[in-house]
Amino acid sequence: MLIILWLTCFVLFALCVTFLTLLLFRNPQAHQLLRIVGDGFKDGLTGSGFIDKKHKKYEVELWVWEVEDENYASEECLERATWAPMDIADWMKEGLPGTPESGIDCGEECCCQLVRYRPRQSKKPHQF
Predict the structure, then answer these.
(1) 50: which DSSP letter?
(2) Domain locations in the chain?
(3) Model pTM?
(4) What is the pLDDT tens value at each position of the chain, 128 positions in all?
(5) Residue 104: phi, psi to the nearest 5?
């Protein structure tokens, strides 16, 4: 019974597609009609979030461990200051500065902080 119902729906769908295709080819403004239908689908997908209208990439902010005063910093803090930049989720796994989760006993005089990483822009020499 379910197979018969599925086959009936499939045949009806095929007939509708065939009818619309024949109607489209007989229409002298078929190109314009296709563009209108295509724009409607695109607007629907953009509104639903499947297509990003601006196509912009979302960048991940990277953070570095920074020591304000090396005289009061522990060896672990100085070591973490040499680590590569990571996103905030990775730093939270390692432990944030001044928290017990970091595994570093800085005490009350903690001089460490996370600072947003800004890569240095290399200046190209002017060519004359």
Answers:
(1) S
(2) 2-48, 63-116
(3) 0.47
(4) 888 888 999 999 999 888 877 776 776 777 777 788 778 777 776 666 665 656 555 577 888 988 887 777 778 888 888 889 988 888 888 888 877 777 777 666 677 888 888 877 555 555 54
(5) -110, 130
